[in-house]
Amino acid sequence: MGKVNYVDDEPWVNECVNVGPVTASHFVGGIAGYISADGNEGKDWIKVARCGNYGTIIASSSDGGCVGGLVGKCDTDKIRVNNGANHGTIIGKGAFKGIGGIAGSLGDDADVLTEWDNVHVYECVNTAAVYSDKTKKCHIGGIVGYLEEGDEGSDDTNSQVNDCYNCGPIGPTSEATHGGIIGHCDYYTSLRRCINYGDTGDKGESMIGTVVDAGIVHDSNLYHLEGTGDDDGRNWSSTSFTEDKMRELSTFSGFSADTWKIGVQTHLRDNKKRAILIDCPFQNLLYN
What is the Cα–Cα distance from 261 to 277, expressed in whole angstroms? Predict the structure, then answer.
């Protein structure tokens, strides 16, 4: 879908899959390029649930484009993306606001802090490379490229990314802010129970690339494979672990056995056991 427009009914994009390459400009996604509410902000949740992408996604932008494995851009409040997987390489050529394995940019960018729930991403996985052509500054994340602000009222109304993991290499080593989970986040973000297995280079971050000035991030139970990303204290309280330890769920404090299990991430083809999700339909479904 090029565009999903929320006018009267609660939109729900459910159990969709893309297996072919997508090449376009500005707002590009494997499932939806652009999601808009046309003034209906603050009402029901827009949902993109249980979807998968296998195709290579290539986008070209001269100013502020967004590209993601499932969603290119959603500029409304109350966007929920859950139980989705991306296995296709994501490439941004030019100037981008956000490049992400799951979504390029999510949430309503208000003039003041929002007074409602904004973004919730949970139980999603990326296994593919996510990068730009290095010619322009951009924000690159294994799950979300650019995450807009949430509400300061409580953790429940922060913009949230929970129970996600990334296995793909992220970013260039210059002209970008890039992280294993989020490229850049605005005010009031909650990041919890996430794992980064993917290489983010010597200038990348295991979790979040950058945060807006004076931005507040609530973070807990974050983990990254030893050697992925910067280890100089800028990993947002993320704890490193060795390959031996990734085979034990007890390594990941606070992770529920109802959400996580130890298994093989089939798309990596390395036969190594690691913590993966229980309920993510396209997580290990191969397409040849």
Answer: 6
pTM above 0.90, yes or no: yes
CA 121 to chain centre: 7
CA distance 148 to 121: 12
Cα 206 from chain centroid (whole Å)? 13
What percentage of the chain exceeds 70 in pLDDT? 85
pLDDT over 70 at 230, yes or no:
no
pLDDT digits (tens, 9 = 90+) for 154-195: 666 788 899 999 999 998 766 678 899 999 988 888 899 999
- Domain-wise residue ranges, the chain: 3-277
Instruction: State the DSSP string of the chain.
Output: --EEE-SSS--EEES-EE-S-EEEESEEESSEEEEE-TT-TTSSPEEEES-EE-S-EEEEEEEEEEEESSEEEE-SSSEEEES-EE-S-EEEEEEEEEEESSEEEES---SS--SS--EEEES-EE-S-EEE-SSS-EEEESSEEEE----TT-GGGSEEEES-EE-S-B--SSSEEEESSEEEE-SSEEEEEEEE-S---TTSBSSEEEE-TT--EEEEEEEEETTSS--SS-STTPEEE-TTGGG-GGGSTT--TTTEEEEE-GGG-S--EEEEESS-TTSS----
State in words which class domain 3-277 has. Answer: mainly beta
Other beta carbons within 10 Å of 60:
18
At 105-143, the pLDDT tens digits run: 998 876 555 555 678 999 999 999 999 887 777 899 999
